[in-house]
């Protein structure tokens, strides 16, 4: 029994000895939220810093110096440097003529009352929450032409505030804004559109607040990520500053112009290409002959109905404007081609019916084989059967005064189909050349007015 207990006692002794030899590390968190352990040699030898911490600096600046947020920092005017970072453009709506985007607004100005370099700060820059911004003077700037604008608050208000030792204040807002667009749809879907935003101080004129684009930035309005829209492509951003007169004085306005080019591939696939196919199908009727009139009629009517339905589907997603758009010209001319093919079908059907009727009125047609092919033999039948045709020709001659139309009316139905099979594609090809040349040149002219790079179009 004694020999059995001895190994167990020895094993317990080794476990206790190992526990006593473990160095227990204590985690230390100082008032600056620096995490360290008590076995760290740098912690034991570090001397306390003789500096002023951020809460004390904020309290001294706002409460200990008599700071007044309603007082302009400089009586001669405060220059405010502004810079925009475009994060995303979410939509452009042709019906309401506006666009929506998310941007970062950067504002920077100098407030001497917030200078703290003499306080020996522990941090060179103070990064504080948006609640402190409510206690500071701000230029009260906003988008004066926006339909809607608000600061994001997910999960908290997206405002970044930093104060530099010399008193410079840097504020960054993440804003969702909806602004107006000057949509001109004459060239739709080959159009180029412009959208505008105007940013200014709402309360202070340019004698008190001078709004300026950031001079240190080559592009005061820049894009953080590549903008991808289903219908448009952002091709240019232009920033300008103007002085606008108001009853209370002159205000500095910062203008942002965004130029968008429409992606027309979707419209080509959904509107132009089906139109081509519908017109080509309507031309098949020219090859079916004069005996397939029901099939030709069904083919032409279905093509016209398909074109009308397609045109209405496109117009449903566009605003009601009082001018003619490029796609209106295309669809109307395409429907005209299909209507003319139906008109040609009516003429061919009318002439075919007359020919069949004239044959039914000739019961002695087989007797032609018993006569010799001489003018005398045919003369008797001309006097008997051709007289009504000559009277009808006389009536048409009184109505139709142009010799060209008379010659055309004397064509056979087969000849009309043969000529139509050549004339319709030729005229449609000429229309395509004129249409695309005209509207593409108009697009280049508009791009030249906007001073756009034609290589990007």
Automatic annotation (TrEMBL):
It holds the Pfam family Neur_chan_LBD. Residues 272-361 form the Neurotransmitter-gated ion-channel transmembrane domain. PROSITE patterns: NEUROTR_ION_CHANNEL (PS00236). Residues 56-263 form the Neurotransmitter-gated ion-channel ligand-binding domain. The chain crosses the membrane at residues 264-286, 298-315, 327-350, 419-438. Belongs to the ligand-gated ion channel (TC 1.A.9) family. This is Ligand-Gated ion Channel. It comes from Caenorhabditis elegans. The gene is lgc-49.
């Amino acid at each position: 029994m004694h020999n059995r207990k001895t190994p167990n006692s020895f094993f317990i002794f080794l476990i206790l000895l190992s526990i006593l030899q473990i160095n227990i590390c204590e985690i230390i968190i100082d008032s600056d939220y620096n995490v360290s352990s008590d076995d760290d040699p740098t912690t034991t030898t570090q001397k306390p810093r003789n500096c002023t911490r951020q809460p004390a600096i904020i309290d001294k600046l706002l409460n200990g110096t008599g700071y007044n947020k309603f007082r302009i920092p400089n009586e001669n005017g405060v220059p405010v440097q502004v810079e925009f970072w475009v994060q995303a453009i979410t939509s452009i709506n042709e019906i309401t003529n506006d666009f929506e985007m998310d941007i970062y607004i950067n504002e920077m100005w100098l407030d001497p009352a917030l200078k703290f370099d003499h306080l020996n700060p522990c941090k060179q820059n103070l990064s504080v929450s948006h609640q402190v911004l409510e206690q500071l003077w701000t230029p009260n700037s906003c988008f004066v032409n926006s339909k809607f604008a608000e600061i994001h608050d997910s999960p908290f208000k997206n405002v970044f505030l930093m104060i530099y030792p010399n008193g410079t204040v840097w504020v960054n807002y993440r804003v969702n804004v909806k602004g107006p667009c000057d949509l001109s749809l004459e060239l739709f879907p080959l159009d180029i559109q412009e959208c505008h935003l105007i940013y200014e101080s709402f309360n202070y004129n340019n004698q008190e607040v001078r709004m300026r684009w950031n001079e240190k930035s080559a592009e005061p309005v820049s894009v953080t990520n590549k903008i991808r829209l289903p219908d448009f492509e952002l091709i240019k951003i232009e920033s300008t500053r103007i002085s606008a007169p108001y009853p209370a004085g002159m205000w500095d306005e910062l203008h942002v112009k965004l130029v968008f080019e429409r992606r027309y591939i979707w419209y080509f696939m959904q509107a132009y290409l089906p139109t081509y196919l519908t017109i080509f199908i309507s031309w098949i009727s020219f090859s079916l002959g004069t005996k397939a009139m029901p099939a030709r009629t069904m083919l032409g009517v279905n093509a016209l109905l398909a074109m009308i339905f397609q045109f209405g589907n496109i117009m449903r997603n566009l605003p009601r404007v009082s001018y003619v758009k490029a796609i209106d010209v295309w669809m109307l001319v395409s429907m005209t081609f299909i209507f003319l093919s139906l008109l040609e079908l009516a003429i061919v059907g009318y002439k075919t019916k007359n020919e069949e009727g004239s044959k039914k009125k000739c019961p002695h047609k087989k007797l032609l084989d018993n006569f010799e092919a001489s003018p005398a033999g045919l003369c008797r039948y001309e006097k008997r059967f051709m007289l009504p045709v000559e009277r009808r020709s006389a009536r048409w001659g009184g109505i139709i005064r142009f010799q060209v139309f008379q010659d055309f009316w004397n064509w056979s139905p087969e000849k009309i189909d043969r000529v139509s099979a050549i004339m319709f594609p030729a005229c449609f090809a000429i229309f395509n050349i004129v249409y695309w040349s005209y509207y593409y040149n108009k697009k280049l002219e508009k791009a030249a007015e906007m001073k756009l790079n034609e290589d990007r179009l």
